[in-house]
Amino acid sequence: MNIEAMISLTAYFALMLGIGFYAYRKSTSDVSEYMLGGRKLHPAVGALSAGASDMSGWMLMGLPGAVFISGFSAAWIAVGLVIGAYLNYRFVAPRLRVFTEMADDAITIPDYFEKRFNDKTRALRVLSSVVIVVFFTLYTSAGIVAGGKLFEASFGLDYQLGLFLTAGVVVAYTLFGGFLAVSLTDFVQGCIMFLALIIVPLVTYFVLQGAGDLSTSMASIDPSYFTWWPEGMTVMALISLLAWGLGYFGQPHIIVRFMAIRTLKDIATARYIGMGWMIVTVIGAVMTGIIGFAYSQSQDLEVGDPETIFILLSQILFHPYMAGFLLAAILAAIMSTISSQLLVSSSSLTEDFYRTFLRKDASQTELVAVGRVSVLLVSLAAIALAFDRSSNILSLVGNAWAGFGAAFGPIILLSLYWKRLSREGALAGMIVGAVTVLFWLYAPVQIGGQSLSNVIYEIVPGFFLSGLAAILVSLFVQPSRSLVEERFLTMEKAMDDGHKAMF
C-alpha cells in the first residue's frame, strides 16, 4: 500500500478528531449530555450510529468472507439480523425511549433496571454493570486487535503500532467528546460503510462484465453455491443462523441509541433510515462475497484468507486514494463499535459504580471527569489484552453477542411489556441467561458427538431459559410487585400519551 492510501486514512483520522473536538465544545457540560447526548439525538444520526456500532468489521470482512466460502447459504445470518433489527426498532425502541426517561431519567441500562424494579438492594445494577464492563472490555480488545491487523496487512506497519493508532484516535474523540462525538463519528462512519459496500461489488461486476469474464466465471461455479438451502443443511443450523437476530434486544451499545433520540415521533423516522441503511449494506456485503468469488475464479487469484476479499478487491481495482477510502470503511466499522463499547463501559463505571457507591453527591463536572478517566482505563485494559497478537480474545467475542442477548434481551422485553415482571424475576432471568450461555459453550457435554454450541447457537437456549426463569419467578415470588406494577402503569400511560401526541 502506497503513500496515497495512507494520505486518505490520515484525512479520515483528522475528520474523526475534528468531530470529537466539536462535540467537546458542544455537549459535555453535564453527565447526561456526556453519556446520552442530553436525549437530543437526531433520528438520522441515531439510526446510522446504531447501525455502524452494531456491524463492526463483520459487515465488511466477516460476512463477505463467509459468503465467499459457502455461497448464499451463509447469508441466512444476515436475514436473521435484519429481522432482529427491525423488531428491535419496532418493539423496543419506542418504549425504551419513554420508559428510561420516566424512570427518573435513567441514562444506563443498569440504572434503568434498578429504577424500573425499585431495587433497593442494587443487585440488578451491580450484576448488569459487571456483565457490561467485563464483556465490553473484551469486545473492545477484539476491535483493537482487528485494527492492528488491518494496518499490519495493508501497510506493513508493526502490529503494536497499528493497535495504538486505532485505539489512540478512538479514545481521543470518545474521551473528550462523549456520546455526541461517538454518535456523530458513527454517522460519518456509517455513510462511509454504506458507500463502500455499494462501490466495491458494483465496480467488480462492471470490470468482469467489461472483460467478458462474468458469464464464464459464473458458469464455472457449482450451482449449489447459489442456493439458499444446500445439501446437508439442517433445520437446527437454519435456526442457529436466524437466531442471531435475538441478540439485538440485549445489546447495550445499540439500544442506548434509542434512549437518546430526541422524541418518540423521531423513533419511526430512525427506523426507516436505519433499516434502509442495513438492508442496502447487507446486500452489498453478500454481493461482495459472491462477485469477489467470481473475480478470483476468472483471474486465478489465490485468496489465502476469504475475509480479506474486500481488502484485495480494493487494492487491485481502485486507485490508491480510493483504496485508502475503502480501507477507511473497514476502519470505520471497527472504530464505531470500539467507541460505542468504550462509552457504555464508561457510563456504567461512572453512574453504576462511582456515583452509586462512592460519591452520591458528586458534581456534574466531577462525573464527566470520571467518565473520561473511565474511558481511558477501559481502553488501557483492552490494549493490554490485545497486545499479544496470539491472544484468543477474539474467540470470546464471538460469544459476547449471545451472552448479552440471553442475559439482557428477555429482561428488556418483559420490562417494557409485562407489568408483573418483578425485581426477583429480572435478576433470575439475567443469571439464568448468562449461565446457560456459558454452560452451552464450555460444559464437557456432547450430543451425537458434537458440542452443544455446534448443535444449536447458544443464544437460543439462553434466551428461552432466561425468559422462562424471569416469568416463573415473577409469578411465584411477589415481594416487590405492587410498587413495580404501579410504576409500569405510569410508564405505559406516558407511552400512550406520547403516541396520542404524534397523531
* Strand residue content: under 5%
Largest sheet: 2 strands, antiparallel
- What is the CATH architecture term of the largest domain? Up-down Bundle
* CATH fold descriptor of the largest domain: Sodium/glucose cotransporter
Helix content: over 70%
- The neighbouring-strand order within the major sheet is 1-2
Task: Report the average pLDDT across residues.
Answer: 81
Name the CATH homologous superfamily of the largest domain: Sodium/glucose cotransporter
Name of the CATH first level of the largest domain: Mainly Alpha
Domains, number: 2
- Order of SSEs: HHHHHHHHHHHHHHHHHEEHHH
Shape: globular
Q: What is the strand tally?
A: 2
Rg on CA atoms, Å: 23 Å
**Low-confidence residue ranges:** none
Q: What would you call the structural class?
A: mainly alpha
The DSSP helix count reads: 20
